Amino acid sequence: GASGDFNPIHYRDDVAKAVGLPGVLAHGMLTMGIAVQVAVDSFGGSGQILDYQVRFTKPVLVDAKDGASLSVSATVSEVDETAGTVRLSLTATCGGQTVLGKAQVLVRL
Fold first, then answer.
1. With bands split at pLDDT 50, 70 and 90, how would you rate the model's confidence at 1?
2. pTM of the prediction?
3. 68 lies in which domain range?
4. Where is 35: in which H helix or E strand?
């Protein structure tokens, strides 16, 4: 409920299936939060997130028994020494499919 979105497709399999989905979907904000954690972990308390953008490319399906496993990796795509910032490109996959596209986070060091 942190986002204010209480849509039951995020927690009830029967409702998700009734509206044509294969099952419960993880909330997009949860997926974004898990993905950006890579940047937080990389820079510890010394980094400040200035900008974070993603495009959702596939939903994250959550199995009632096994849950879901999201794999996230980051690569440095730009360093601006004058501004003291680093831009990271994030890749997030679930079940072998990319779930976030054009995911980038700008961090001030």
1. low
2. 0.88
3. 26-108
4. helix 28-43
